[in-house]
Fold these 2 entries.
Entry 1:
Amino acid sequence: MAEELRRHTICALVDNEPGVLARVIGLFSGRGYNIESLTVAQVDARRGLSRINIVTTGTELVIEQIKSLLAKLVPVHRVQDLTVEGPAVERELALVKVTGDRQRLVDALRIADFMDVRLVDRTPQSFVFEVTGTSDDLDAFINLVEPVEVSRAGVVAIGRGDTVLGPRS
């Protein structure tokens, strides 16, 4: 029986320096692992730290290998698997463009209103919506409005409660 594939959100606190992201991506591509979502941003300018959020799917063995390899990279301070370490908050942002005749745009506006999606730009022929929520929320809106263009920012995530992803003391 094959092991079950499971989606994981892994966060890494890393030095904010050139080449770090390339090394992390190389770890995945060199072993044939897929990255479903990737976000990275500086989170502590004083200490020069960035946070990388990676969403990937794999067996438990593959996920453990990924976490172990990430933790061994020199500029990586901490690795946290939010999927197994307790409750977490995950959100994603997308800009979704819908074009068409008046009726298509009105329908899209009704769906957006129902789903608490924000209209951020409009022309007589198009609407651009800002969608925030879980990846499933974004997928649902996108499937309903059948847009002509989508730009997704990727998953950002943080653990709930008093657990903090910080550098080792």
Entry 2:
Amino acid sequence: MSLLFDISLFQLTLLMMAPLIIACLGETIIERSGILNVGIEGIVTLGSVTGFLLTYYSGSAIIGCIVAALSGSVLTLLLAYFSITLRANQIVIGLGIFVLGLGISPTIYRLAVGVVQSIPQVPTLKEISIPILGSIPFIGEIFFAQNGLVYMSYFLVAAVSFFLFKTPLGLRLRACGENPRAADTVGIDVARMRYGACAVGGLFLGVAGAYLPLVISGSFTDNIVNGRGWLALMLVIFGRWVPVWSFVGALLFAYVDAFQFKVNALPQYAKIIPPQFLLMLPYVFAMIVLVQVARGAESPRALTRPYDREARD
């Protein structure tokens, strides 16, 4: 019981939560416009390698995050071109983007780094304790003694929620995902809105990818994302396309992920529990919860449906 409520476990939970919720927010924006992005794993992987390499060669994590965001946006816009302009099947194109991202990322890494005896490393982001808030017992140690990207994830949840549900532009975006013909009738450019959603959502996915080497590992490996893109896709469904509920889901799944890391690091438990079981625990938990939650979830009605203003519904 002491392990379940350990402060360091909660701190690690927020550390593991940030890339999930950042990617989930990007996917939420994209799906709210009516585009299903199942290539998210490949896009996040591309963000990881570009973020790591630019940080490694420039010495600036900020430059790494910016380039990672741009690379994620470019690959997502490729998905948008096929899905919006060419009206191709979004699932098929998404799977193609997924394979492309997973294939091109290690290729870029090997071309940039070459054959080396030791794996290149970058310094991970340091904790930044917020004055006053960071000194609050228990809560301050957990929420306000984190790195800058974790703080950014707090802000992004609030900002995306406000944008989607409290602004006219957010209303137009949601209209494109629910009823694009009605949106087109009142003068909303559906294609432009969807392209914009993909461009902005791709920025989020790229930053989520850069988070992994810059905060968690300090290096890039081929399997660095390790299914987190798929988990973010699942969190969109878990949260019913509402950022606040997705944030709750991200905390829940990050807690399970952090728990398996903590248990695996303790010798007394590592001898009893197979490490393979601990590694699969977050994904099994995710599937069980998703089966229960997805039953009543209603996606945007125009999701995966290409819009052609000349066609008859």
